[in-house]
Amino acid sequence: MTDRQEEIQDELLVLQCQEGNDHALETLIRRWQPKLSRLAWRLTAHREAAADIVQDAWLAIVRGLNRLDDPARFRAWAYRIVSNKCADWTRRRVVRRSVETGLQDVAAGASHDSTHERDSAGEVDRMREALTKLPDEQRAMLSLHYLDGMGVVEIARALDVPEGTVKSRLYHARNRLRQAMERIKR
Fold first, then answer.
1. Among residues 9, 69, 158, 172, which one has the fewest Cβ atoms lying within 10 Å of its Cβ?
2. 166 with 155: CB under 8 angstroms?
3. Distance CA 62, CA 58 (A)
4. 17 near 67, Cβ under 8 Å?
5. Where are the chain's structural domains?
6. CA-CA distance, 94 to 106, in Å (whole number)?
7. 156: how many CB neighbours lie within 10 A of its CB?
């Protein structure tokens, strides 16, 4: 199935969901669960948190589906909901971490270092590590563009920012990723 055919199918499913078709909702969830889960995982780097975030996002999606005026915007709308929930989770985590003791941070860092030593041989592992060093906003930009195949216009809609901002953030994110990978290489 081509991308355009999948988009049309998603639009039809959204319209059917808005008419109260429970089977269409189940199909929409089944089709989009993996995509939204990947996004949440990439933005949080925590599988359990990502699963909780996506579950919470689905509640918001189901509640707001009838207010979605243009079914063609479902993809951007759903990604924005997940992105916003990930940003909320990250903010809460930062607050919690600032309250935690320094020992927990040291233990987490030691665990990460040993994992890095074991996995750093491959290019993919280097890329993953470099991505974790990027700010959430830049990681989200790169993920949406390269991993989810979204264009500048669609990312702008999903994140509710101007297109020029998306272009600028992508440019800076690419540069930062390149620098992070060079540092890891050394």
1. 69
2. yes
3. 6
4. no
5. 1-99, 102-186
6. 16
7. 18
Contact (CB, 8 A) for 44 and 132: no
DSSP letter (8 states) at residue 149: -
Q: What is the pLDDT of residues 126-135, one digit of tens each?
A: 777 777 788 8
Residue 32: in which H helix or E strand, if any? helix 22-44
Choosing among 2.30.300.10, 1.10.10.10, 3.40.50.2300, 3.40.50.300, the CATH entry for 102-186 is 1.10.10.10
User: Per CATH, the architecture of 1-99 is what?
Assistant: Orthogonal Bundle (1.10)
Q: What angle do CA 35, 39, 42 make, to 5 degrees?
A: 135
How confident is the model over 119-164, as pLDDT tens digits?
444 666 677 777 778 887 788 788 778 777 788 888 888 777 888 9
